[in-house]
Amino acid sequence: MVRLRVLTTSDWPLWREVRLAALEDAPYAFKSRLGDWHSGGEERWRARLALPGACHVVALLDGRAAGMASGLPGERDVCELRSVWVGPHARGLGVGDRLIAAVRVWARASGATALRLAVFPDNEAALALYRRNGFVATGEPGDLLPDGVTRELVMVNGLR
Ligand SMILES: CC(C)(COP(=O)(O)OP(=O)(O)OC[C@H]1O[C@@H](n2cnc3c(N)ncnc32)[C@H](O)[C@@H]1OP(=O)(O)O)[C@@H](O)C(=O)NCCC(=O)NCCS
Question: Fewest 10 Å CB contacts: which of 34, 101, 117, 147?
Fold first, then answer.
């Protein structure tokens, strides 16, 4: 059974466990590196969860951490979907859909009109998940990747 948990700052050990698992499992999917966070202490993890106006969700499958997603305030009335990850043992079960739905509910409740994200353009599983959940490419140029040529793909999903 999949259960979602919206985290508070005191949940930082759970957030650390899941975030480090994500960075270890899928370094190809994130700009952050495992090494950037491995040495972080309690204060750093708490600070991430204490970002004003943000939402952090962890999915638990049969009580075991299975995925995560964050919603962050963006520019004007557009919120950002970040740090989406589903553990290999939980993929294909709709956990990504549940996490996105939870962030969408939070974004709408915080007054946003759209949810925006950036994804590496060769991340087919993530692209399929986002398209299935109604995200479309905006056409705007995303951040340049380390190869100096490829850019992140920016996608958006209206909330109205
Ligand atoms: C992206 C991710 C969250 C999707 O997990 P999920 O929600 O369980 O989604 P699913 O396993 O159902 O896969 C989503 C879609 O991708 C497809 N897919 C899965 N693995 C794939 C692969 N290696 N190549 C191409 N397509 C793939 C599935 O068939 C599914 O397609 P569908 O919508 O047509 O059915 C998960 O793969 C993951 O955590 N990956 C590593 C981290 C990551 O990429 N995060 C996103 C950062 S932007």
Answer: 147
Q: Which residue among 61, 129, 151, 157 is best mutated to probe the pocket of ligand 1, counting the most ligand atoms within 8 A of its Cβ?
A: 129
Residue to mutate (ligand 1; options 4, 86, 99; most atoms within 8 A of CB): 86
Question: What are 10's two structure tokens?
Answer: 């005191």
- Name the band, by pLDDT with cuts 50, 70 and 90, for residue 13: very high
Q: Give residue limits of the domains in the chain.
A: 2-158
CB contact set of 157 (below 8 Å; sequence gap of 6+): 104, 114, 115, 116, 130, 133, 134, 135, 136
* Residue pLDDT, tens place only, 121-133: 999 999 999 999 9
Nearest CA to ligand 1 atom 19: 125
CATH number of 2-158: 3.40.630.30
pTM of the predicted structure, to 2 decimals: 0.94
Compute and round to an integer the Cα radius of gyration of the chain.
15
What atom of ligand 1 comes closest to residue 127's alpha carbon? 16
